[in-house]
Amino acid sequence: MRTILIAALIMATFAPYSLAQTQQAQPAPPAYTDISGTVLSVRQLTFPHTRLSIKVTQSSNPAVLALKGKTSTVTVENYLWSVAGQLDFKDKRNIASIGAFYLLQGDEINAKLINGATRGSVRYVYGISRGKAAVKAVTAVKKLQQPESIKKYDDLELSIKTDSDVYAFGAPVPLVLSVRNIGSRSKTLRFDSGQKFDFIAMRGSHEIWRWSDNEVFIEPLVDRTLGPGEVLTFKQVWRQQDSEGRQMGTGEYKILGVLTTSDRKRPTVGPISIKIVSKP
Q1: Is the peptide bond before 48 cis (omega within 30 degrees of 0)?
Q2: CA of 267: how far to CAs of 194, 221, 223, in Å?
Q3: Residue 79, phi then psi, degrees to nearest 5
Q4: How many Cβ atoms sit within 10 Å of the Cβ of residue 260?
Q5: Exposure string (b/e) for 108-126, b if CB count within 10 Å is 16 or more?
Q6: What's the CA gap between 258 and 177, in Å, rounded?
């Protein structure tokens, strides 16, 4: 009997602690309201925290937002789960929340609005995802927005292009310059040295980078003959730096391509415009 009483006492003492541990390890998700809407603005705070203004068009609980058949605009921040004060990257719920950092104005999204959780006038959301319409729109934009500029010089057609019009801060920007002989006869190009092409990046009206500035070329004249329809292609990467190796900031940039022939006026194509945006 004494043994049974001692065992019962031990269970009574430690059972609440064990239950508390279990509840802490597997917290119940906060109560939420499903919403859908359009992103009106994105403010990137300290990564990966983001503040969004959302025009809500649908809600699983209209009473929460007092929609009453109309649209409502809410200011929200992405809710993130942490362990001991550190962001928990193993928590799958954080994946969608971190994705909010990369949303753009006009994106159609779905999200879970946490009930009752506010910081002043700011509410919290998680489970953020782009709507199907937005995904289709983004895919179409990516297919269309691949900047290219084409220019003709006698029997030559020059083109410069890159694979996107928007790049994250610090990301490499691939550049392609193509030269096609569109004439009916072979055409010989003469170059003053081993250099055959150049790329130039500009911020406003100021040149900030020229690929050839940090290159060395052989001195003898070089000839290159293109047959009818033949294409000469040159590829390089701009690493978002100026000619001195300094990192450039976010904003709009223009890129030019140059065929560095011995002609007094070297064939030039462009500019194409790209935008550098912030990234953690």
Answers
A1: yes
A2: 17, 18, 16
A3: -85, 135
A4: 19
A5: bbbbbbbeebeeeeebbbb
A6: 8
Residue 98: count other Cβ atoms within 10 Å of its Cβ.
19
CB 83 within 8 A of CB 118: no
CA gap 228, 185 in Å, rounded: 6
The dihedral through the CA atoms of 249, 253, 257, 262 has a sign that is: negative
Task: Tell which residue, 159, 172, 166, has the closest CA to residue 231.
Answer: 159
Q: Which of 171, 120, 162 is nearest to 256 (CA)?
A: 162
Whole-angstrom distance, CA of residue 172 vs CA of residue 165 = 13
Measured CA to CA, the distance from residue 228 to residue 181 in angstroms comes to: 5
Token pair in block for residue 229: 């329809």
User: How do residues 154-184 score in pLDDT, each as one tens digit?
Assistant: 899 999 999 888 888 888 999 999 999 999 9
Nearest residue to 160 via CA among 252, 227, 258, 230: 258
Q: Tens digits of per-residue pLDDT, 182-214? A: 999 999 999 988 889 999 999 999 999 999 998
